[in-house]
UniProtKB/TrEMBL annotation:
Its EC number is 2.7.13.3. Signal peptide: none annotated. One of its GO terms (cellular component) is membrane. Keywords: ATP-binding, Kinase, Membrane, Nucleotide-binding, Phosphoprotein, Transferase, Transmembrane, Transmembrane helix, Two-component regulatory system. This is histidine kinase. It comes from Streptomyces pristinaespiralis (strain ATCC 25486 / DSM 40338 / CBS 914.69 / JCM 4507 / KCC S-0507 / NBRC 13074 / NRRL 2958 / 5647). Residues 342-430 form the Histidine kinase/HSP90-like ATPase domain.
């Protein structure tokens, strides 16, 4: 019957092809050591822990080399020169295993096989372990531990199978001498490789998690910063849009309000009004980009320092004893500074409610004519109280810093010796925005205050 028609011939052919392919892969793994040549435990912070692999390897070599030479000479009746060479080849590569364990394994396996061949013709082999001596087993297991801590799974599997194959091949050659030590080494080496390989993979996973957490934390901080900047930009749009609208109206109405206005002046006012409208259009386009897809338009005017009293009252209702010291006359406060000061007080009080409920809090807003000073200080809570939140997202302080940076001021935050917390912001006042700020303040009405977003009181 032709080979193609023989039952099971195709299955056997595929099995042989798979076996050859697997053999080639295992051979390639044995010939491809890990790209890393860093010492084992080289990344440890403790210096003594980094030196530990060298110390262990040196101790094994110092103990096994003379013992191996002595046992081979006295018990196995091997010549002194040959015994010394075998002992050195079987133990000295353990020092190399600290940085290049796979290369060390090739040398040790070759030396162990050569030693087994030499012992075949020795006079003292009968009644003693063969093909592996006890010292060779101990050194080999130490080498397996180094391999497990460095090489990938497929390489470890190839090493384990090669160890078993070498032992079984020697057993077939000298079956009368074998006492099963090759099976013992095969099993023990597999156990050591599995344990150390699992430890290495666990360490790799932990390191990747640490790296991922670091990246995630950096991305989260960057996202928080961008969100705060977008929010500030949306708020500033309301401020600047109001000013640009005033400019447009004044420029358009100037020819009707001013009698006998020259034609050149009329054209100049018309140009000013046109430029202001174009600027408003561009700002609206920018706002559309900054606003998230699910965000709704904010129709209420942005709050200012004249609403700090409402913030303090809402904080008192939340169970925090708070008091306000607000200067009767703050002078000319630019609208950007006005809004930034309000937001800083709002976030500081919200942090007190979340992280230090019941802590007495003092809010102070003063002006010396050149700078506006906002100070929020809370002391320790009179009785231990579980905070509403134990960890924060970092949005609050990021928002404060961005607002202070926007106005060119400075921010000082930090814990106090008595257990409280302090937020101090200094915002410079620019005299050029006095009239604009006045117009912005008069535009606030009682009805707009009632429609302000609920986040203002939270």
């Amino acid at each position: 019957m032709p080979e193609t028609l023989r039952p099971g011939a195709g299955t056997r052919t595929r099995a042989r092809a798979l076996a050859r392919r697997a053999g080639r892969r295992l051979a390639a793994d044995l010939g491809t050591p890990s790209s890393s040549t860093a010492p084992l435990l080289g990344g440890a912070e403790n210096r003594w822990l980094r030196l530990l692999p060298y110390g262990v390897a040196l101790a094994f070599v110092a103990a096994l080399l003379p013992v191996t030479a002595t046992v081979l000479t006295q018990d196995y009746k091997v010549g002194g020169a040959v015994a010394g060479a075998l002992a050195t080849a079987q133990t000295a590569p353990l020092l190399l295993a600290v940085t290049r364990p796979l290369q060390a394994w090739w040398i040790v396996l070759g030396a162990d096989v050569a030693g087994a061949v030499v012992l075949l013709g020795a006079d003292g082999t009968g009644g003693r372990t063969w093909p592996w001596t006890p010292m060779a087993v101990v050194g080999y297991l130490m080498l397996m531990a180094c391999l497990g801590l460095r090489e990938p799974r497929r390489t470890l599997l190839a090493v384990w199978l090669a160890t078993g194959a070498a032992g079984f091949a020697l057993e077939l050659v000298g079956h009368d001498l074998g006492d099963g030590v090759h099976l013992l080494l095969f099993v023990l080496s597999g156990v050591v490789l599995v344990v150390t390989g699992a430890l290495r993979e666990r360490g790799d996973v932990q390191r990747r998690l640490i790296v991922q957490e670091t990246i995630s934390e950096a991305e989260r901080a960057q996202r928080t910063l961008l969100e705060e900047r977008a929010r500030i930009a949306r708020e500033l749009h309301d401020v600047v849009a109001h000013h640009m609208s005033v400019i447009t109206v004044q420029a358009d109405s100037a020819p009707y309000r001013i009698e006998a206005l020259p034609d050149a002046a009329r054209e100049e006012f018309a140009s000013i009004a046109s430029s202001a409208r174009e600027s408003l259009t561009e700002m609206r386009r920018l706002l559309a980009v900054l606003r998230s897809e699910d965000a709704q338009g904010e129709r209420a005017p942005q709050p200012g320092l004249d609403r700090v009293q409402q913030l303090v009252e809402a904080t008192v209702r939340a169970g925090v004893p708070a008091e306000l010291s607000l200067a009767a006359d703050l002078g000319a406060v630019p609208q950007a500074v006005d809004m930034s000061g309000y937001r800083i007080v709002q976030e500081a009080l919200a942090n007190v409610v979340r992280h230090a409920p019941g802590a007495p809090t003092r809010v102070s807003v003063t002006s010396d004519g050149s700078d506006l000073t906002v100070l929020v200080v809370n002391g320790p809570a009179p009785a231990p109280t579980s905070p509403l939140e134990t960890t924060g997202t970092g949005h609050g302080l990021v928002g404060m810093r961005e607002r202070v940076r926007l106005t060119g001021g400075s921010l000082d935050t930090g814990p106090l010796p008595d257990g409280g917390f302090r937020v101090a912001a200094r915002l410079p006042l620019t005299a050029g925005e006095t009239s604009v700020n006045t117009a912005g303040r008069t535009g606030r009405t009682k009805s707009s205050t009632q429609t302000q977003r609920t986040e203002d009181a939270s």
